[in-house]
Amino acid sequence: VRTQVASQTWSGEGSPEALRVVLVWTRLPPRPYVFIVQKSYQDSETGPESSVITKVKGITFSEHKVWDVEEYVKPPEGGSVFSIITRIEVTPSQTLGTCPESMRVSDATCGSDEDCVAGQLDMLGNGLRTGRCVPYYQGSAKTCEVSGWCPVEDGASVSQFLGKMAPNFTILIKNSIQYPKFQFSKGNIEHRKDGYLKHCTFDEVSDLYCPIFKLGFIVEQAGENFTELAHTGGVIGVIINWDCDLDLSASKCNPKYSFRRLDPKHVPASSGYNFRFAKYYKTNGSTTRTLIKAYGIRIDVIVHGQAGKFSLIPTIINLATALTSIGVGSFLCDWILLTFMNKNKVYSHKKFDKIVDPPEQTAGPELCPPEPSRQDSTLTDPRGLARL
């Protein structure tokens, strides 16, 4: 509520005292709108209890092999957060040994053994330095030798693109929610026995309860270019909103889906998404691994919403607030006090001031000027100095 006060002083000619007018007005909030449209007569609950299960299907290929779900989805548990690999950089046949350090590591380049300190360990490097300066994998440059998994990633990595068929991958997002306060629960899959989920895909109008989305559709709805996103990686949020008016039937409580990119693509240091993992195996009794740096599209399924249902307590509170804000409350109180109370005349006397008009002055010369009253002299001479 914002209250504004404006005051103005006016003094008429010959008037004994000044007249001060104070105007006060208040801009009231739209209480009827809050009560009816925003449903303040309801008890509400925000943040539903939710569970999410996901499943990805599809096959793709790269320059060297065919990829299935077990290889390009990480982690494979089917939770609310998962990644679909779209490009990899592979460093094959790494074994424990000694090799040149990557040139990307600070102070890795050298001219002689004196530039390399034996036993030094760089936390951003690939191993423990041996103290030797050795030729790099290609070219004439030299770097300090390290003991670790060799060759290092930058020395022998090969890039493979998996995103050719990735837009056609299908993602099943099974979601169920519950509002414990109202003992209400619902899921986003239609209960049918005709194999409905085997041949449907999501459509907001015709197939709202078929939560099977194509990966290309999700990226498109998020406003992104699929090829660019597949090369650099990124994070896409699938937001499921359950806003339910439980005064209506359960069929009116429906999920609403939205899609947006969550990583800041215009900030180079924070955009994109990649991670590393390795596959280990034995070769001639020695441990060998294949190091994979994976770029992909990470999907975060986020569920939120709120539910409301009629309740007597918030109805009474907000109804009384609405009536008070528009002046009905004060009107009812005055009417009761002035009509039914025993001392209604006392209250009326305190509430309303009677105004008596001064006598009109006749025209003509004034023979005997009126003697100033004691009250007027008191107002003009409050300390009584004139009597001295």
Q: Can you give a write-up of this model?
A:
By secondary structure, the chain is of the alpha+beta class. The protein folds into 3 domains: about 1-40 and about 310-350, no CATH class; about 45-90 and about 155-305, atp-gated p2x4 ion channel domain (atp-gated p2x4 ion channel fold, Sandwich); about 100-150, no CATH class. The chain is built from 9 helices and 18 strands. The protein has helices at about 30-35, 70, 155, 215-220, 225-230, 310-325, 330-340, 345-350, 375-380, and strands at about 1-10, 20-25, 40-45, 50-55, 60, 65, 75, 80-100, 125-135, 140-150, 160, 170-180, 185, 210-215, 235-245, 255-260, 275-285, 285-310. Strands 3, 7, 8, 9, 10, 11, 15, 16, 17 and 18 form a 10-stranded mixed β-sheet that branches. Strands 4, 12, 13 and 14 form a 4-stranded antiparallel β-sheet that branches. It starts with a strand and ends in an 8-residue tail after the last helix. The model is unreliable at about 1-30 (pLDDT under 50). Homotrimer and heterotrimer; functional P2XRs are organized as homomeric and heteromeric trimers. Homotrimer. Forms heterotrimer with P2RX1. Forms heterotrimer with P2RX6. Forms heterotrimer with P2RX3. It comes from Ailuropoda melanoleuca (Giant panda). It is a multi-pass membrane protein.
